[in-house]
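Students often ask what a 'structure token' actually looks like in practice. Rather than answer in the abstract, let us consider Intradiol ring-cleavage dioxygenase, a protein of 165 residues. Its sequence is given first.
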Amino acid sequence: MAATSRWHCDRPVGASGAIQLHGVITGEDGRPVPDALIETWHSAGDDNAVAKTGLRRSGRNGTRPTCVITDQQGRYCVNMVPPQAPEHGSAPFIAVSVEARGCLDRLITRAYLPGCHLAKDSLLRRLPAEQRQALIATRDDIGLRFDITLRPAICVTAETSDEAR
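Now compare that with the structural description of the same chain:
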């Protein structure tokens, strides 16, 4: 995917080691999903609350959720500080929720950072290889890419017809 200057996030990636998570939301038919609401949050440290819940939405060791809307091509991007593992022995991840027209409920998933630390994560170890791979973001020239395909089981489509009934 070639990024255009219009699509890049407005906030620059700073010297603080910020990363850019980006991707495309599509339907199972491969068509982009415009105007989907993407919310991300992650653990930015490790205290007792983070270890118990896996995430904390605000405070010293957690991040506030960031919300963006996909463009007409289904693309999104978010700049953030890199996530920390929420507890010892787990892998760092970014929680991602998607709300889109036609979906019955919001989808919540994880975008794991690529690396050798993934083998230690108890959730990833329990998943079949194909499902595990779908939860791991990939590095590219922009940052971390995490594409999501919405499946019919969680979404419904409204068909319209010009025929009189």
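One point worth highlighting: Confidence is low (pLDDT under 50) at residues 1-15, 46-61, 157-165. Ask yourself how you might have guessed this from the sequence alone, and why that guess would often be unreliable.
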